[in-house]
């Protein structure tokens, strides 16, 4: 095996690092935690202006997924607000893979320039893990589709330009077969957005669709082909586009605080810290493997499940012990005097539980591994 | 030079060759028959015929010149088969020793993983019961001692050929300062980590095969989600351990002045990675054997089933260096700097 990045990738990484140094300021981090919007338009635009988004997007430009891994890994390690960018690039990659030429021309440039974000409407109030059972309907009316229903966890809907929307188009087909994915502008009449505040600071949304009318140009990946579109998105989402190294900035913040307060010499703390460093390294190697599989032309769906299960639990372990070790100081929030890790220790204890839910719960991912990797019978 | 996380075609062939060799020549019954000593001379003679004992040695010394990554692949097959031969220890010791009879495998070498005590005794040396040559640290020197092996030792959890050996009695050669030994210990940690990944992998296979076959309530036990989820963690830990082990091999062989930038998760320091691999692979092997044994139900602790042999070796091979806290703290010193005063 070879773990060395090529000279081009190293140059690419260094460019990202210099952009991160310039744009990911404490003010930006602060803004993310006060507004609940995990996105930095100025950062996106700079990455777009320099052609980095096009280069990192699978299937476009240079399109080396190792570069995509490097970009998100650097952003995540720096604690940058990158959620908006991750979703947008993922959808750009899916449009590029499954979309029509017209869709590619109309949608992709707005994303890789760093201007437009995308929000995802899959889950509904009653259908989370069982997403193939969703009820939001799209019905053909002449040349148009009429969409009615509602979605939950439509994160970034309040700022996104595009919406990718999973609907039921055929009631007679089995549940996975009668689904169609749409991609439409968020300013299409009939869409309502209501904020949902969360434990982890980020504001997500509930969205309603009342007689939303779109044409065939909004169908992504073909009528009744929505499940395939969905799994393509998830293969990119799980364990390739960030979300796998969230513990790294936490360990850094905790360490600074522990050193300053003279508790870093405690053997228990040092042992836990060393263990978490191992966890983070393994998480990044599993992520790199998913990226490498994608770079070699494969679809890292199963490996993505494996990466996500491990990385999320590693982050949660780190969050648990750092907060417990900090004691009362681990309860204090951002800008409070004496807060452990400048408040990140407390924040990560609120943020880490979210990670084992979105993008596929840990249980769904374990089902996936049990059935597809170990060859065990379907359990439900 | 760019990221490549697959085995090379050569390594695929090596894995196939050694997995085939061990499954033919050393099915679990061979490990069972070799207990409690944990050494089978006939099997070692066949390992010699394969050229395995010297495969990592330099060609000018009569060795095969294999890369560390190749040795990792071999060590994993040793773990998968729990073959009662001291190949891992021998390959590690030969990073410093070049004697022709060692390269040929006619004499067996062991690594004294902990320094000698004040009386010059290396305690509980892995492979110490059967090794003709032991390399280790005595005081501030790295020494190699040739003496007759006891061919017996204390009965132990992992059925390993352990024995105390003297660093001073026998034919003793001083190789250099104690720091010279670091490279041997790094390689020992690396190859032991690989062997533990192999144990974990075999335990996973045994567990999965058992739950597919065993029926309760009229269905395979493996159709229950509680069982599935316990097993689903195993390939994750195994793949993670394998990647980390190969990264350590790559770093030990290719990187000088590697990074220890844990705050940015940028670690390319070979010795740190070897210790990390050992700790992680040990946990993986312990977890895989725990769960696999548990999902065997009562048969898991019946001696006639093989999983208990893996269970004991997972602990034996991972604890013989030291307790995990001590090993973790040595890693912490390398990553974060040692505690002053």
Could you please describe the fold and organization of this structure?
The complex is a heterodimer of chains A (380) and B (341). Helices cover 49% and strands 14% of the residues of chain A. Chain A starts with 6 loop residues before the first helix and ends in an 8-residue tail after the last helix. Chain A has helices at 7-23, 26-35, 41-49, 52-56, 65-77, 83-98, 101-112, 226-237, 247-260, 267-295, 301-326, 344-355, 362-372, and strands at 118-121, 137-141, 144-152, 162-168, 179-185, 191-197, 203-215. Chain A is α+β, with helices and mostly antiparallel strands and 380 residues long. Chain A is globular, with a radius of gyration of 21 Å. The model of chain A has no long low-confidence stretch (mean pLDDT 93). The longest helix of chain A has 29 residues, at 267-295. In chain A, the strands form 2 sheets. Chain A has a 4-stranded antiparallel sheet, with no helix packed on it. Chain A has a 3-stranded mixed sheet with strand order 1-4-5. Chain B is of the alpha+beta class. Chain B is built from 11 helices and 10 strands. Chain B has helices at 9-25, 28-33, 41-50, 68-81, 87-93, 100-104, 182-213, 225-254, 270-295, 307-319, 324-336; strands spanning 109-111, 121-125, 133-138, 141-146, 163-166, 171-177, 215-216, 219-220, 260-261, 266-267. Chain B has a 4-stranded mixed sheet with strand order 1-3-4-6, covered by helices on one side. A two-stranded antiparallel sheet of chain B has the order 2-5. In chain B, β7 and β8 form a beta hairpin. In chain B, 54% of the residues are buried. The model of chain B has no long low-confidence stretch (mean pLDDT 97). Classes of the chains: A alpha+beta (380), B alpha+beta (341). At the A-B interface, α5, α9, α10, α11 and α13 of A face α7, β8, α8, α9 and α11 of B.
């Amino acid at each position: 095996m070879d773990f060395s990045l090529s000279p081009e990738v190293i140059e690419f990484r260094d460019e990202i690092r210099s952009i991160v140094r310039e744009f990911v300021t404490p003010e930006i981090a602060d803004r993310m935690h006060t507004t609940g919007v995990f996105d930095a338009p100025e950062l996106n635009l700079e990455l777009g202006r320099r052609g980095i988004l096009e280069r990192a997007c699978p299937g476009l430009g240079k399109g080396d997924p190792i570069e995509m891994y490097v970009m998100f890994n650097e952003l995540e390690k720096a604690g940058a607000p990158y959620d908006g960018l991750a979703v947008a690039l993922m959808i750009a990659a899916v449009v590029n893979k499954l979309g029509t030429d017209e869709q590619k021309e109309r949608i992709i440039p707005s994303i890789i320039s760093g201007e437009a974000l995308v929000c995802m409407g899959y889950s509904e109030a009653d259908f989370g893990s069982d997403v193939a059972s969703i009820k939001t309907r799209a019905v053909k009316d002449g040349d148009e589709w009429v969409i009615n229903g509602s979605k939950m966890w439509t994160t970034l809907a309040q700022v996104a330009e595009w919406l990718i929307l999973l609907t039921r188009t055929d009631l007679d087909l089995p549940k996975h077969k009668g689904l169609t994915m749409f991609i439409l502008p968020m300013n299409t009449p009939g869409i309502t957005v209501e904020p949902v505040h969360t434990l982890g600071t980020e504001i997500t949304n509930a969205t309603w669709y009342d007689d939303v009318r779109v044409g065939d140009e909004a169908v992504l990946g073909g009528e009744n082909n929505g499940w395939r579109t969905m799994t393509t998105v998830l293969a990119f989402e799980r364990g390739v586009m960030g979300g796998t190294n969230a513990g790294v900035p936490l360990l850094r913040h905790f360490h600074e605080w522990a050193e300053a307060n003279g508790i870093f010499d405690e053997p228990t703390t040092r042992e836990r810290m060393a263990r978490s460093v191992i966890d983070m390294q393994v998480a990044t190697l599993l992520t790199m493997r998913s990226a490498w599989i994608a770079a070699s032309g494969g679809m890292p769906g199963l490996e993505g499940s494996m990466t996500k299960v491990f990385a999320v639990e590693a982050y949660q372990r780190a969050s648990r012990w750092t907060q417990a070790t900090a004691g009362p100081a681990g309860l204090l929030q951002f800008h409070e005097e004496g807060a452990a890790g400048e408040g990140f220790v407390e924040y990560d204890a609120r943020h880490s539980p979210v990670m084992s839910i979105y993008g596929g719960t840990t249980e769904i991912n374990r089902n996936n591994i049990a059935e597809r990797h170990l060859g065990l019978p379907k359990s439900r | 030079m760019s990221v490549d996380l697959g085995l090379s075609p050569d390594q695929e062939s090596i894995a196939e060759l050694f997995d085939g060799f061990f499954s033919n020549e050393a099915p679990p019954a061979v490990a069972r028959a070799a207990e409690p000593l944990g050494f089978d001379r006939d099997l070692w003679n066949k390992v010699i015929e394969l050229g395995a004992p010297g495969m990592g040695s330099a060609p000018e010394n009569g060795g095969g010149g294999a890369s560390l990554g190749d040795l990792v692949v071999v060590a994993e097959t040793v773990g998968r088969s729990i073959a009662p031969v001291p190949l891992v220890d021998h390959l590690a010791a030969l990073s410093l020793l070049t004697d022709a009879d060692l390269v040929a495998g006619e004499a067996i070498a062991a690594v004294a993983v902990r320094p000698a005590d004040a009386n010059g005794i290396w305690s509980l040396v892995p492979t110490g019961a059967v090794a003709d040559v032991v390399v280790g640290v005595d005081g501030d020197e790295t020494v190699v001692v040739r003496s007759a092996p006891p061919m017996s030792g204390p009965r132990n959890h992992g059925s390993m050929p352990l024995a105390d050996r003297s660093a001073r009695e026998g034919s003793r050669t001083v190789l250099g300062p104690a720091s010279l030994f670091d490279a041997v210990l790094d390689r020992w940690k690396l190859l032991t980590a690989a062997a533990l990944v192999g144990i974990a992998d075999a335990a996973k296979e045994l567990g999965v095969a058992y739950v597919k076959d065993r029926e309760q309530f009229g269905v395979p036990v493996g159709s229950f989600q509680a069982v599935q989820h316990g097993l689903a963690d195993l390939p994750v830990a195994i793949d993670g351990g394998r990647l980390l082990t190969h990264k350590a091999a790559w770093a030990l062989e290719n990187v000088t002045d590697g990074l220890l930038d844990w705050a940015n998760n940028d670690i390319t320091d070979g010795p740190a990675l070897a210790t990390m691999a050992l700790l992680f692979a040990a946990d993986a092997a312990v977890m895989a054997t725990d769960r696999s044994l548990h999902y065997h139900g009562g048969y898991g602790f019946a001696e006639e089933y093989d999983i208990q042999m893996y269970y004991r070796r997972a602990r034996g091979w991972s604890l013989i260096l030291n307790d995990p806290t001590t090993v973790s703290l040595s890693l912490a010193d390398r990553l974060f700097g040692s505690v002053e005063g």
